[in-house]
Amino acid sequence: MSYAIIGFGSIGQALARAFARNNIEVTVASRRPPEALLPQAQAIGPRVIPGTLQEAVKADVIILAVLFEGHRDIGKLLADWKGKTVIDAMNTNDPVETLDNLPSSAFAARSFPGARFVKGFNHLLSRTLATDPKVEGGHRVVFLSSDDEAATAQVADLAKRLGFAPVNLGKFDEGGALVQARGRVWGPLIFQDLFKQQP
């Protein structure tokens, strides 16, 4: 299984640290050329590999850590996203009317035809996401939602490998609405830093 993070700002770098802590190779890419990302990538760890956007979309699992308005451009990189799992770590302040009254993930998924689309890793501040999730005798929670149960299970497995405790909220328009930013009204679980105690 291959992994990529598209977007190498604060969220992208925080997620890259999670991969590095667990010795999992991940490609990182942004609109900047790979050589521009190299110093930050090397500072995080040797298994964080800068690449082009075209290289990043070859991965099996792709995390979107770009600004929400940039997702359409990423979606255009492939005509068919079949076989790809895309994790939406984005948030938006766009008025819900501009999203066709859909949860932001359901709206963004339209730009990735054929992809298995999962909301995840979007509710923690970057400085929190960057720290080791194994704390206070347990694991930091990450919320997941998707209209594809198998994709949610796949991303939950990845979250566990990265040291997090995944919580499945269900479909986008059901429990997933708890972590969907809608206009300037944030979902009730956005920015909640919760822990799951080890059994």
TrEMBL record:
MF annotations from Gene Ontology: cupric reductase (NADH) activity; ferric-chelate reductase (NADPH) activity
Residues annotated as domain Pyrroline-5-carboxylate reductase catalytic N-terminal: 3-91
Alphabetical keyword list: Oxidoreductase
Single GO biological process annotation from the record: copper ion import
This protein's record includes keyword Oxidoreductase: yes
One Pfam assignment: F420_oxidored
Cellular component per GO, a single term: plasma membrane
Entry keyword annotation includes Isomerase: no
This protein's name: 2-dehydropantoate 2-reductase
